[in-house]
Structure formats: C-alpha cells, structure tokens
TrEMBL record:
Belongs to the small heat shock protein (HSP20) family. Residues 1-91 form the SHSP domain. This is SHSP domain-containing protein. It comes from Cupriavidus pinatubonensis. InterPro entries: A-crystallin/Hsp20_dom, HSP20-like_chaperone.
Length: 91
C-alpha cells in the first residue's frame, strides 16, 4: 500500500492481484480508511499439492491511518492489479 499527499489530496495505491476492483469494500471513517476484500484460490489449483504460496488467499482487511482529515473519496480506479484511490481533504 502506498500513500502520497499532494495539494490537499491523498493518493492511495493498493496492490490487489487476483481481486476484482468491484469486489473491494471501502469504508472511510474519520481519518481511517478500511479496505476489505476476498481473494479466492484459482480453480486450477483445486486438488493440487501446494509447493509455494506467496499470495495470501481468503478474506482480508487493511486499515490505513490517514493524516488529519476529514476526507471524501473523489476517484476510484484500477490498473494492472492495483486499486487507485484519490481522497480530497474537506476543510
């Protein structure tokens, strides 16, 4: 996860390989951003013997403390397995 502040906006990049951007649930409460989703094991792996598994599978949640806010989500997009969020500071 990457967090960059620029001109009253926060840009958050979250690497989510194997997760559909539509399956990601976002919650913005005060100055905490919660990101929840579930990564399913590919069907091709079913019944096989796992020798190496570096990508975590199953339900997960990440919480990111933001600089003092409040913020509003202005943009949500995805590219190359990453979710890009742009949050604008409300003054």
């Amino acid at each position: 996860m990457e967090l960059v502040e620029q001109g009253g906006r926060l840009m958050v990049i979250v690497a989510l390989p194997g997760v559909s951007p539509d399956a990601v649930d976002l919650t913005l409460e005060g100055d905490v951003l919660s990101i929840r989703a579930q990564r399913h094991l590919p069907p091709a792996f079913s019944g096989g013997t796992v020798h190496c598994l570096e990508i975590p599978y199953g339900r997960f949640e990440r919480r990111l403390a933001l600089p003092r806010g409040p913020y509003q989500l202005r943009q949500r997009s995805s590219e190359d397995g990453c979710l890009l969020l742009v949050l604008e500071r409300l003054d």
